[in-house]
Specification:
By secondary structure, this protein is of the alpha+beta class. It is about 20% helix and about 25% strand. Strands 6, 7, 9, 10, 11, 12, 15, 16, 17 and 18 form a ten-stranded mixed β-sheet that branches. A four-stranded antiparallel β-sheet has the order 1-4-2-3, with no helix packed on it. A two-stranded parallel ribbon has the order 5-8.
């Protein structure tokens, strides 16, 4: 299905203050008044344009965002072309499952970070997208860069949607904020959650002792978070299955949400180096064929799995340009499928 291309953003936009808006702050007034023409022009972007001298009132430059407007005043906002991104384009192979003039959906491999940052200056999804998209990026926030609406951890594989322009970026962000995006993940976890279908609710914030980790925190702290899950398969024989394959659906999108929530209920994701563990709870250290309920080779496969066994398998959203509901699915990558086979018969 192809999406409709959006018209090119104007180089300038004008508006006149109606009597009903007398006394409004200039930045707020412009954001509302220009929304029909430039829907992605946020107040923060308008403030930046004011500070750069890009707003004129009846011919005179005005730079104060808190200026109170008066009826009959006419404002002209110049919209400069987007600046080039500071990250450099890099020719990194991408699996693009959908693309049009407004957005693309990428099946991200495990090991590929989304953003450049401390310790990861390049070789990220952003670098790859800059090379892949080229001139089709019309700018996000005044910079010619891809609009990352949501993130996946570096070692989580699966689907991620990326905006090519401000309008699409803001529209998708609104869908995420309104919780109308469908997102489903596959995860291999230790043990079997009870009940088999459930909902985990618990605020997520910084761990009180380990500031690089997230944790479920008390009421009044962190941000609300909710994850729905269902058990798809159980692995291992006997009364205490070793592991299970579950599907998680996000109601919110907090940092490390699934990883934190599953660890919180005692079923951390296999291979998770931060919130997980290498062996099932209450069992001996794994050696091939020695842990209860494991098949030969299972322990070796678990120890060889060097990332959290988490895959973003589904994403669905309304296309901002056409209004069509789009839905995409992705099979787990080879390393996760190999681990599923190594865990032995499912029941």
């Amino acid at each position: 299905m192809s999406g409709g291309a959006r018209p090119k953003s104007p180089d300038a936009a004008t508006c006149t203050v109606p009597p009903a808006e007398a006394g409004a702050r200039l930045d707020r007034f412009l954001a509302v008044a220009l929304a029909p023409t430039v829907p992605a022009l946020s107040r923060s972007r308008i403030k930046a344009l004011l500070q750069d001298g890009m707003v004129r009132k009846d011919g005179a430059t005005i730079t104060d965002p808190s200026h109170r407007v008066k009826p009959g005043e006419r404002y002209r906002v110049t919209l400069p072309p987007p600046e080039d991104a500071t990250a450099r384009p890099q020719d990194i192979a991408l699996t693009v499952v959908y693309e049009d003039a407004d957005l693309l959906v990428v099946d991200k491999p495990a090991g590929l970070a989304v953003h450049p940052g401390a310790g990861q200056p390049d070789s990220t999804l952003v670098n790859a997208l800059l090379a892949h998209c080229g001139d089709s990026l019309s700018g996000v926030g005044g910079v010619r860069r891809p609009g990352i609406v949501h993130r996946l951890d570096k070692d989580t594989s699966g689907l991620i949607v990326v905006a090519k322009n401000d309008e699409t970026h803001h529209a998708l962000a609104a869908q995420f904020a309104g919780r109308t995006i469908d997102r489903a993940y596959l995860a291999l976890v230790w043990g079997v959650p009870v009940p088999a279908v459930g909902r985990i609710e618990g605020n997520i914030g910084r761990h009180p002792q380990h500031r690089t980790k997230m944790a479920v925190v008390g009421a009044g702290r962190g941000k609300t978070a909710a994850t729905r899950y269902r058990v798809l398969r159980r692995f291992g024989e006997g009364a205490n299955p070793v592991a299970s394959l579950i599907e998680c659906q996000l109601e919110t999108g907090r940092t490390h949400q699934i990883r934190v929530h599953m660890a919180h209920i005692g079923h951390p994701i296999i291979g998770d180096p931060v919130y997980g563990r290498r062996a099932p709870a209450r069992s001996k250290a794994l050696a091939p064929g020695t842990a209860p309920g494991t098949a030969p080779g299972t322990a070796k496969a678990i120890h060889a799995f060097s990332r959290q066994a988490l895959h973003a398998r589904l994403i669905g959203f309304d296309h901002p340009g056409t209004g069509d509901r789009l839905k995409f699915e992705s099979e787990p990558p080879n390393d996760m499928r190999d681990l599923i086979r190594a865990l032995g018969p499912a029941w």
